[in-house]
Amino acid sequence: MPADANTFLPYLLLIAAYLLGSVSTAIITCRLMGLTDPRTAGSNNPGATNVLRVGGKKAAAITLLGDLLKGWLPVLVAALAGLSLEWQALIGLAAFLGHLYPVFYQFRGGKGVATALGVYCGLNLWAGALVGLTWLLIAKGLKISSLSALIATLLAPLYFYLITGSGVLSGVLAIITLFIFQRHHQNIRNLLQGKESKINTKQ
To answer: Which of 35, 91, 114, 196 is deepest in the core (most CB within 10 A)?
Structure first.
């Protein structure tokens, strides 16, 4: 029986994806490694860039990997279950929103860039790789993580539309872009004022 015939499966996966997204890799990693809680140091954001500031490269790499997997795994499970690409995107969105508004941490989460990238790669590896490459090139050239994230996620819906031709999929990813821009409102203000911190900058 096709997975789509099971009315409840997509909704169960939506809930599971949100709960998985709610698990903070940054907080758990810093706690296990005896580091400062990322919510109380640096930019106060529980994400890989801030963990790099407060805990170094190893902790940041673990955080990045964990946040990527939070976005990728739910999409993979949805694909293996035979759900449509649109359902996969919605389940990825649920994981992303879990990272932003985690039920386990009073709904105060991170900015969602790495988790979004995991979702992108789960939906289409080539398009996800383009987003990641865009981030990497801008980050390497300008060394401003927030600007790299903003440009890469802004282009993500376009990349996916050009590769998949799905307007619905691109629309769901545009929602992710809007949330990421909202989460980076202070970074955008700092960028406009020329005060945004660069990668590896201690705060």
So the answer is: 91
Residues whose CB falls within 8 Å of the CB of residue 61, separated by 6 or more in sequence, listed in order = 48
* pLDDT tens profile 114-128: 999 999 999 999 999
Angle value at C-alpha 118, between 57 and 181, nearest 5 degrees: 85
Residue 201: CA count within 13 A, CB half-sphere? 12
**Phi/psi at 115 (5° precision):** -65, -40
Note the pLDDT tens digit of each residue in 166-202. Answer: 999 999 999 999 999 999 999 999 999 988 877 764 4
For the chain, what is the domain count?
1
Domain with 152, as residue range(s), is 3-193
Ramachandran angles phi, psi of 109, nearest 5°: -120, -160
> Within a domain: residue 202?
no
